[in-house]
Specification:
By secondary structure, this protein is mainly β. It has 5 domains: 2-126, Sandwich (Immunoglobulin-like), CATH 2.60.40; 134-222, Immunoglobulin-like (Sandwich), CATH 2.60.40; 225-303, Immunoglobulin-like, CATH 2.60.40; 307-385; 392-459. The strands form 9 sheets. Strands 24, 25, 28, 29, 31, 32, 33, 35, 36, 38 and 40 form an 11-stranded mixed beta sheet that branches. Strands 2, 4, 6, 8, 9 and 10 form a 6-stranded mixed beta sheet that branches. It has a 5-stranded mixed beta sheet with strand order 12-18-17-14-15, with no helix packed on it. The longest helix is centred in the C-terminal third of the chain and has 25 residues, at 459-483. The radius of gyration is 55 Å and the shape is flat. The termini are far apart.
Length: 508
């Protein structure tokens, strides 16, 4: 409160002296610089004054005449900080007032005799869009006397300039000035064909900012001409064919819109259209007769036949040659060749036929037949197989060698040991598999070879030799025992010989 009273006291004591200095006006840009054409550029305006509650009116100077801008608020009033603020908005969309470049302006704050002006501030405007491009054309290259001539003009930027038409001798040139604040594209003028001869249209334009563009076109007005109407049959309306007259391109003709050409009487011309008109993917339209000669008023329709593409492929690609692919008339019946069941590929690889697919659906049989009612794709599907080779040196009756589908697991084995007395005993696998068991398995992601490593074992031979030695020793011992018993006397005649078994009795 004391500060406020002091300020009021100063205001009454020193007004003439303070007023002599005037308010201080400061401008600060708050939007991006440079500002694109057609956007709003904003600035913060600060008015510093030695007293509160003083209202200042804001004005702007330096921008082009007619510039659109505003202050918010305006007037603005100083607060207890002895500052007043406002937002300045400059509208650069009021073309063509703002060309790309820098514009200097000042802001003045006025309150009675108290006036303050900011230092110059720059408004920088950047170009939006491409430089000026212009074009001019007519709807036809030639006209008959009395025809309406439509002149098409394109300006990619706001511009001003002239459209001038000059003609044959005796024709007075016509000049049409124009000015536009927006790009234009369309019919600029319509004229009635008059004097016979060749006319030139010249277009010159300036985009208000130093950009210049020019273009020219020509047309002819002929007497006693005849019209020829060209149309297409069998081509949908969204497609068109290039039209040529005597080898020179004359635009296009739509599938559903006839086109009229004018020719001088007595002249002959050859009219051609495209033999093939592309449609959607796998569809085209074919004309067997795409050329026509004319020398008088007439009309002609080029007839097109719808054709569909038949694609014949293999999966994997290029496994085996195929036939039947090509373009066919709508309704035609076509078929592929019969593909082989097995195709040898690179070493250790083969391909085994699985089935055909027609437009993604599985088909039976080794060939495909189809009626061409739309584009079709036939794919011969083959399973890739890799060979497993078991190298065991001819030992152990190896099992599991052969071809396997890619990605599957192959199990293989050998018998061990092999032989009698002297044996071959399996030690380990080498190559594309490592293991010590006679049986193993590998994933067939490529051709693979496994090698069985063997060792010679004499264990059974040693055992057999030992048994033989023992048998020989046993036989020798038995023979020696029999030899120690001697030769017994032969019994007397007439006596009975008997053999007593058991413990002999003691005689008394």
């Amino acid at each position: 409160m004391g500060l406020f009273v002091a300020i009021i006291a100063i205001a009454f004591i020193l007004p003439p002296r303070v007023a002599a200095f005037g308010p201080v006006v400061t401008i600060t840009a708050t939007s991006s610089q440079p500002a694109p054409q057609g956007t709003l550029a904003t600035y913060s305006v600060d008015v510093a004054w030695g007293f509160p509650s003083v209202s200042f009116s804001l004005t702007l100077a330096g921008l082009p005449s007619g510039a659109a801008y505003s202050f918010s608020p305006n007037p603005t009033t100083t607060d207890l900080t002895l500052h007043a603020s406002s937002t300045l908005t400059i509208d650069t969309s009021s073309l063509p007032l703002y060309c790309p470049g820098s514009y200097s302006f000042t802001v003045t704050a006025t309150s009675g005799p108290n006036v303050g002006t900011s230092t110059p501030t720059a408004l920088t405007v950047a170009m939006v869009g491409s430089p000026l491009l212009v074009s001019v054309s007519t709807d036809k290259p030639t006209y008959r006397v009395g025809d309406t001539i439509s002149i098409f003009v394109t300006l990619t930027r706001p511009a001003e300039g002239t459209l001038q038409i000059t003609g044959p001798s005796g024709f007075s040139a016509i000049t049409y000035p124009f000015a536009t604040t927006r790009p234009i594209s369309g019919v600029a003028k319509k004229l009635t064909a008059g004097a016979i001869g060749t006319y030139t249209i010249s277009l010159a334009a300036d985009d208000y900012c130093g950009g210049f563009g020019s273009a020219q076109a020509s047309f002819a007005v002929n007497p006693n001409t005849y019209d020829v109407t060209i149309s297409l049959s069998g081509v949908p309306s969204q497609y068109s064919s290039t039209l040529q007259v005597d080898g020179q391109q004359q635009g296009t003709v739509q599938g559903s819109q006839p086109k009229t050409l004018s020719f001088p009487i007595g002249s002959s011309h050859t009219i051609m259209v495209d033999q093939y008109v592309a449609g959607e993917v796998g569809v085209r339209y074919y004309s067997s007769q795409n050329s026509w000669s004319v020398s008088s008023a007439d009309s002609h329709t080029f007839n097109y036949q719808t054709q569909y593409q038949f694609s014949v492929l293999t999966d994997p690609n290029g496994v085996t040659p195929t036939t039947g692919a090509g373009w066919y008339n709508e309704g035609a019946s076509v078929q592929t060749n019969q593909v082989p069941q097995t195709v040898q590929g690179p070493s250790g690889t083969q391909y085994v036929f699985k089935n055909w697919e027609l437009d993604g659906a599985a088909q039976s049989g080794s060939q495909v037949s189809v009626t061409m009612d739309k584009p079709h794709t036939a794919v011969a599907k083959y399973a890739t197989q890799y060979q497993l080779v078991i190298d065991s040196g001819g030992i152990g009756n190896p099992q599991g060698a052969g071809y396997y589908d890619a990605g599957t697991s192959a199990t293989f084995s050998v018998a061990s040991p092999v032989g009698f007395l002297v044996q071959q005993v399996f030690v380990r696998w080498e190559g594309d598999y490592a293991g010590t068991s006679p049986q193993g398995s590998v994933t067939m992601d490529k051709p693979k070879t496994v090698h069985a490593v063997w060792t010679t074992s004499y264990t059974q031979a040693y055992i057999a030799a030992g048994v033989l030695v023992v048998a020989i020793i046993a036989a020798a011992i038995l023979m020696m025992r029999r030899g120690k018993g001697g030769t017994k006397a032969k019994p007397s005649k007439g006596k009975r010989i008997g053999l007593r078994i058991g413990k002999p009795k003691t005689e008394t």
